[in-house]
Amino acid sequence: MAAVLQQVQGGMWLVLGLALGAMLLSVLVRSAAFKGWWGEYKVRRWLAQDLDAQHYHCAHNITLRRQDGSTTQIDHVVISRYGVFVLETKHLRGWIFGGEKQRTWTQTIYRHRTSFPSPLHQNWGHIKALEELLQLPLQHLHSVVVFTGDCQFKTAMPGYVTQGRAVTALIRSYREEVLDTPAVAQLVSALSHQRLEPTRRTHKAHVAQLQQRHALPPTSTARRKVMPSQPRMTPKAPAVLRQPALAPAHLAAAPPQPALVLPTLAAPLLEPTPCPACGDSVVRRSLPDSAGMARYFLRCERFPHCRFLQPETVEQAPSP
């Protein structure tokens, strides 16, 4: 009987251990660090399988120190006779909204929306770092952004933003030789000497520097909490052109003209105003009402992703 109880107890501990291990594995798989590592691993495998190692030299997880003392971390660099390809990897799912000139993009999963820095702007910083460290002309550096997760683009993307294994086809599509073999070997050697040692300590120091660089001042956070529904300033409405006073009837040379109103176009703000909902810029827009008058309102620049809207009173010209 005691042996049976020991077996049952051992089985219970085994089941409990397996359940705990499954929970820890689930938390690990859902973490941002694992998702980033998994996306970079997939791109590294595709590059190794689809690109000829004799013509394409790949380097991964490169940390460089810039001339101003800051560091930048690049996911992948491919050096070839067709130029240097700088790859930024994003492992995301859901719907992706973004534009070439927007500094923040949006990920939408059902009703949950998350903003993240534009990978185009991130990769531009990587390209500038390689330009100054390798002394390479900017036209020989090619930006490539690859999404590895189960995502779908909901806005038009530039040609150098790709998804999945199509990144290797994009790299092979460049056929104009801009570097000779000695220049390629020199760049590979220079990059190997310029990069910092790929250790956990280097990565932690880079992450700490990023957090310090992008930390928000406490005054900005406090201001947004105190004024959640009002912008910092309310610009005045544009002046309305009024009809001059009419002359007496016996002196009138022409029939009176109706009052003129400025066209119902978007009026710029006097200075950038942050959106109280998301912190982005607030822009001024107008729509005509049933009488044809301009009705101005303030709206977040990220509309429809941000729904902040505030009507504004506009002075109207008196009836003649």
Descriptive keywords:
320 residues, alpha/beta, five-stranded mixed sheet, four-stranded mixed sheet, 7 helices, 12 strands, 34% helix
Protein architecture, described:
The protein has 320 residues and is an alpha/beta fold. It has 7 helices and 12 strands. A hairpin with a 5-residue loop joins strand 1 (56-65) and strand 2. The longest helix is centred in the first third of the chain and has 29 residues, at 2-30. Mean pLDDT is 78; it is low at 216-254 and 257-270.
Helix content: 25-40%
**Percent of residues in β-strands:** 15-25%
Order of strands in the sheet with most strands: 1-2-3-7-9
**How would you state the average pLDDT, rounded?**
78
Order of helices and strands: HHEEEEEEHEEEHHHHEEE
Topology, number of strands: 12
Low-confidence stretches: 216-254, 257-270
User: How many helix segments?
Assistant: 7
* Morphology call: globular
Topology:
Blueprint: H1 2-30, H2 32-50, E1 56-65, E2 71-80, E3 83-90, E4 94-97, E5 104-109, E6 112-117, H3 119-134, E7 141-147, E8 151-153, E9 161-163, H4 166-172, H5 181-194, H6 200-213, H7 218-226, E10 282-288, E11 294-300, E12 309-311
Parallel strand pairs: 3-7, 4-8, 7-9
Antiparallel strand pairs: 1-2, 2-3, 4-5, 5-6, 10-11, 11-12
